[in-house]
Design goal:
heterodimer; A: alpha+beta; 5-stranded mixed beta sheet; two-stranded antiparallel ribbon; 67% helix; B: alpha/beta; Rossmann fold; OB fold (Dihydrolipoamide Acetyltransferase, E2P); 5-stranded antiparallel beta sheet; 7 helices; 30% strand
């Protein structure tokens, strides 16, 4: 993340290697060009040609470099035109500077050699552009490789996260505290109220069957998830007695919609564990689902303790949030609000095309 | 011999009934003189009845069984009941304390009963539990795995909301509050920037200014201003945030 941030800014030092490479190639090209032109009729000695060549190369490079820095936020077409113009201007300036350095009388020299100068300028722009193109392609290839590498790392990180969450999920559904408390209740009911004991046993069986099988699948339906949650809440209804009441309101039309398993249940578990169980008076839970264009919302509201210190409610929520992010690639949301007058209102929003 | 009196406290009524029926089988002479459904009731009952024995569920609303035992001024022998997993049970392996695991079995309860009977016949005074309990609470109530702040309680419009920390684009201090910006807009929290800096994961959250912390995962562009100052633009926000010189090192390539 740190690298991504700084690559966008222009830090001279980071680009030093590239700049040196570009500069050397520019000077070599232009020297070759000027040498070629000299054979065609500059008619001067090697020394003058060499000086002019160096100057043209350096100036063309410096001008282009400056232009590209100034145009660094612009589109590629503007950059290309700008670079070409800067190269031409740089070449002209280089010839004048080079001629001056080799002790020519500029007033006479320039008009005399005007045709050649035009040739040199054109060749410089062509050669320079070609080199720029080649170097840029190399740079692009390098960047592409780097991107592939980053993508690979990202993919592996995501895969690792998925495995971790799945493991946590498996651990979560057979939470020992829940299981042993429920079994204690069933044992007790076998002595005092066999029929209710049977009902509770059946609810435990449905809950375990649905949660254990469904977690291994990619998708369940909202209807199946609600069946599981109903069994779960029935168990707590017996355990907590009068202290718990619940309502599940799912429109018939939404029951068949596919939904990832064990995503709503942790919200319900959270509501009971951190909201209602620790509250002396208990309270109620209501679960509702609704669809609006493009979105499917599941709300779990409770009238429990709500936000309070010294509770670990955040752990469960973090798991849900991370799973939502990886399942829906960041397009799903988990919204946790305060329920009035007390308690939590948790909503899951996932993208949904209704057809 | 005077009668021995006990109370049972568990927030799940069925479990109170069950334990009572088990006790009546295993220890018929014991008189259960009170039942409580939460920690506060349990404490009141203990003060009022001054029972010889208290069976206390650990996880109860109001007060936990541990809190009840350590706050009670009476001399009562306490047996804790818990559905905790094995790891937590290790904390209870202590001479002074007795505990029963849920579901309670006849065999295990008999052992506890024998031990209680022996203590009472030998006239051993109930163990002083306060110190032991504090130790256990410390061992069991260990901090969550991640010590960095994950959820932020913030005021969003008129409503309190929990914001997942990775959804935050940046924090900015204003007069009395700290503004939290997410794609949903602004929320307010009371915690000052300085305190937040210590609590947030420094890998993701960079303090770039005395009054600004940004989510580095959301950086869109970093640019130089004409004076050489760095300025950051974040994805999903149009605001340009300046980086003060003392934090510019964060943006040097590592």
């Amino acid at each position: 993340m740190r690298e991504a941030g700084s690559r966008k800014s222009f830090v001279f030092r980071d680009h030093l290697g590239l700049i040196v490479r570009k500069y050397i190639s520019a000077v070599v090209t232009v020297t070759v060009i000027v040498m070629l032109s000299s054979m065609m009729g500059f008619g001067e000695g090697f020394f003058t040609n060499f000086i002019i060549g160096q100057c043209v190369g350096t100036c063309a490079f410096a001008f282009t470099f400056t232009a590209l820095i100034c145009l660094r936020w612009k589109g590629p077409l503007v950059q290309m035109t700008g670079a070409a113009l800067a190269m031409a201007a740089g070449a002209c300036a280089g010839i004048i500077f080079g001629a001056f350095l080799s002790g020519k009388d500029l007033f006479f020299y320039i008009p005399e050699k005007s045709e050649l100068i035009v040739q040199v300028v054109i060749l410089t722009v062509m050669g320079g552009s070609l080199f720029r193109f080649i170097l840029n392609s190399q740079e692009k290839i390098r960047q592409a490789r780097e991107r592939i590498q980053t993508e690979k790392i990202k993919r592996l990180t995501i895969e690792k996260k998925v495995v971790e969450t799945n493991l946590r999920l498996l651990q979560a559904q057979i939470e020992p505290h829940f299981l042993f408390n429920t079994l204690s209740n069933i044992l007790s009911l076998l002595d005092t109220d066999v029929d209710r004991g049977k009902v509770m046993m059946n609810d435990l069986i449905s809950y375990l069957r649905l949660s254990l099988y469904k977690t291994r699948e990619e998708m369940a339906t909202i209807g199946q998830e609600m069946e599981m949650i109903r069994a779960y809440l029935n168990i707590f209804k017996i355990r907590m007695g009068e202290r718990l009441s619940y309502a599940i309101d799912i429109p018939e039309s939404l029951r068949g919609i596919p939904f990832p398993p064990m995503l709503i249940q942790p919200l319900v578990e959270n509501a009971i564990q951190h909201g209602l169980e620790p509250r002396i008076e208990g309270g109620d839970i209501s679960i509702a689902a609704s669809a609006i264009p493009g979105k499917l919302c599941i709300d779990v509201a409770d009238s429990g303790l709500g936000f309070h210190e010294g509770s670990h409610w955040g752990v469960g929520l973090t798991n849900i949030k991370e799973r939502l992010d990886s399942l829906y690639d960041g397009k799903a949301r988990l919204i946790i609000k305060e329920n009035r007058p007390h308690g939590f209102l948790a909503s899951i929003e996932v993208p949904h095309d209704r057809d | 011999m005077t009668e021995i009196r006990a109370i049972i406290a568990d927030d799940e009524e069925q479990l109170v009934i069950y334990l009572e029926s088990m006790l009546s089988r295993i220890w018929p002479e014991l008189v259960v003189c009170g039942r409580a459904g939460n920690g506060r009731e349990a404490l009141e009952l203990m003060e009022l009845e001054s029972p010889d024995i208290a069976f206390l569920d650990i996880k109860m609303p109001g007060l936990t069984g541990m809190e009840v035992a350590s706050q009670c001024s009476r001399q009562t022998r306490v047996v804790f009941i818990t559905a905790f997993n094995q790891y937590a049970v290790d904390a209870f392996e202590n001479e002074a304390m007795d505990y029963l695991l849920k579901p309670v079995t006849d065999e295990r309860l008999s052992k506890t009963v024998d031990r209680l009977k022996k203590q009472m016949e030998g006239d051993t005074p109930p163990a002083e539990l306060k110190g032991v309990i504090e130790e256990v609470i410390r061992a069991v109530g260990r901090p969550a795995a991640s010590s960095h702040l994950k959820w932020i309680k913030a005021l969003h419009r008129d409503c309190i909301r929990l914001i997942y920390v990775d959804d935050v684009l940046f924090f900015k201090s204003s007069a009395k509050y700290t503004t939290v910006l997410t794609v949903d807009g602004e929320s307010l929290i009371k915690k000052p920037i300085k305190e937040l800096t210590d609590e947030l994961d420094p890998e993701t959250f960079w303090r770039i200014h005395r009054g600004t912390i940004i989510n580095a995962g959301c950086i869109d562009k970093v640019s130089h201003s004409l004076t050489g100052r760095l300025a950051v633009k974040l994805k999903g926000s149009s605001e340009i945030l300046t980086v003060s010189r003392s934090y510019a090192h964060l943006f040097k390539q590592m």
